[in-house]
Amino acid sequence: MCSWDEDSITMGVEAARDVTSLPEEVEAVILASTTLPFAVRQNAGVIAEALNFPEDVRTMDVGGSLRAATTSLLAALDTTSAQGGDVLLIGSDNRKARAGSHMEMISGDGAAAFILGQDGLGVRFLGSATINDDFIDHFRASGDKYDYAWEDRWIRQEGWLKTVPKAINMALQKVGLAGSDIDHLIVPCQYGRVPDSIAKSCGIRESSVVDTMIDTIGICGTAHPLLMLAYTLAKSASGQKLVLSGFGQGCDALVFEVTEAISHSQPNRGIKGWLNRKVEERNYDKFLTFSGTIDREFGKRAELDRPPALTAQYRNKEGVTGFKGGQCSQCGTIQYPKTTYCVNPNCGAKNTQQPHAMSLTPARVKTFTADHLVFSMEPPAYFGLVEFEGGGRMMVEFADLDPETFDVGVQTRMHFRIKHIDENRGMRQYFWKASPE
Amino acid sequence: MASGIRDKVAILGMGCSKFGERWESEPADLMSEAYEECLADAGIDSSQIDAAWLSTAFDAVNVGPSAIPLATALRLAYIPVTHVENMCASGTEAFRGACYAVASGTADFALALGVEKLKDTGYGGLPARGRGVTNDLFTPTVSAPGAFAQLATGYRGAHRVDKKDLKRAMAHVSVKSHANGIKNSKAHLRREISHEQAINAPMVAEPIGLFDCCGVSDGAACAIVTTPEIALSLGKTNVVAVKALQLSVSNGEESGFNSWNGAHIKTTRIAAKKAYSEARIKDPRKEISATEVHDCFSITELVTMEDLDLADEGSAWKAVLDGRFDADGQIPCQIDGGLKCFGHPIGASGLRMLYEMFLQFQGRAGDRQIKNMNYGLTHNLGGHPVQNVSSIAIIGHYNG
Fold it and tell me: CA B69, B72, B76: angle at the middle one, nearest 5?
């Protein structure tokens, strides 16, 4: 589960930052999600600014079905081949489900990001097939919180087992491959034996079927095909062929070949790295609170109304969203945030700050506390002073820490998170929090 | 026996930011804009400031509490800094603090800076806020125009002025200020309005219309004060000294006891009398060269002329229509456009008024220059006609 301060935008940012050598600029940022935080406010645009891409980047939000990410992948491939340049594709979802429902049990929250381009490809796209089919396995009306699903037996038999093999066979035929040529088959399905049956229908050997990770991360909505792709590529070898499918009112089936460059294309952490970092939560009450399923008493300190000052937010977005501080061109001191006068008492120069990106700079804990009094969605609230390597310091909120090991001197890195949710106006303010490496 | 402030404090330099909808500026940017001009004008270094006073009225929606925002914005050298607030009279309040520090001999150079950022609320007009938990149980929910509109109906009633005549006089006040504002490159509003436009403007709070209301602006203004002796020793030749500084605060009588007539500001009258005495001014109508008064609304300026004894009781409306307070009149009022056109960033206004007066005495007011400045009076009013804070400052050439 994601924390109260994570959503499809924040997870998307962190997934993108997991790309080793993320380019400084891309042609487009595409965000696929069925749980976009904003119906109006370009979600991919927030991600683009958090990654400090230049302003002339195309941003696109795609939703509507659980195959939005694979469809976006096809669109992104079209863009790079037509225009050149790189495209950042992100699939990100944190789906809500009713307490006690089957969907609650099988769902997970997650995001995966890929850079698509022309050169140095770790994976080469061979071809695809798409079927559009208004098969309503489950649906959610705009503005509604929960999906409504039909019977699992029908979904399995009349949906997955009919449409997915059809699309895969169409794709294989198009690219001139047989099922036996496929080394990895990705079917992001919550039903246990469906991927195996589909493999059989396509002449693909059972050993090629990729683990859905339903027991470790759950099915992460539209992000899931991309998460399974990342998982697969972490253990693929050059020359291997893989089929990636996405299912939701039809099916996308994409065929790829792994290249030699795959070893240089791995993410910083990847599925394995993030799972190593996990904290197990056994408190169902906390899960229900974070997902907004229960109407919890938060106490009077939570009543403080903080209207968003959109003018101030806009003026400061380079520092707040982009996490750029300043470096004094006179004395070299780095500070966060940027100010008119240099913070160095031996300098104090005016208007000498050059914007300085700091979201990747490690920061060490200098002081901290666990505050049980201040309102927090996950009390106690951890905050304190961190010092950035190379200069700069700030008072910051901490996230994802282990109370047993967290202490002065711990090295942290900044993560993009929700700072404050304004329930009255439906606004959420994003900022960076420090989390142990 | 207290001897008053007269000629004990000199204004060494002043600064003022451009007032207006400063979307791209943080309060810290406005502060440094005014401060840098002020330091250059004073000819001293930031490290020489001994103490500072910060004036902001709506800190909750802009800089935040305490005096720390001023110290951090300007990187002051860990000196004493005080946040003062007396609603719209905060600017003069900061000036008082700085002046008294110098007059007491505890500071050589003291800074008074007022700043307000009103345009981060997302709506026009002043930020809405409570007036204190108990006050909110009793007082009607009001707007500032509504509160000052009371003064208009009170004035009409007390002096039997015809509705149309008062509206015409109010319009004249605004037309005059708009004409003055055009000559001021730092003003927020810089366009002429006609008498008809003022009269026919949309109603805000009967009888106050849109053009009877001052601008809602972002801005900062500041002053550095010192002793006249230090000013002279630094080579300043045209030393401008503080002649009077008075403050008067309502004690509840206007709103509870059946005496006040609703047609004047009691605190302004008391402060004015004390200020004239402190400055040794016997005949204000002859000795005051110009005024910058608190024209939050046109009616306030009109009534203030009587409160400052620059017009006879009940006849200010006629004096206004006669042009006595126009730019070419006997006693120009709001020569820089006033709150009406220069704008009203609450905490900065009292200091902005002094800024214009200071420029006038220094002969640096360009197109707006008034000949033969003798005494300049600024008037800063916070609160509502029925309960308020009034401050008056009079400055003039130093004659020690």
Answer: 115
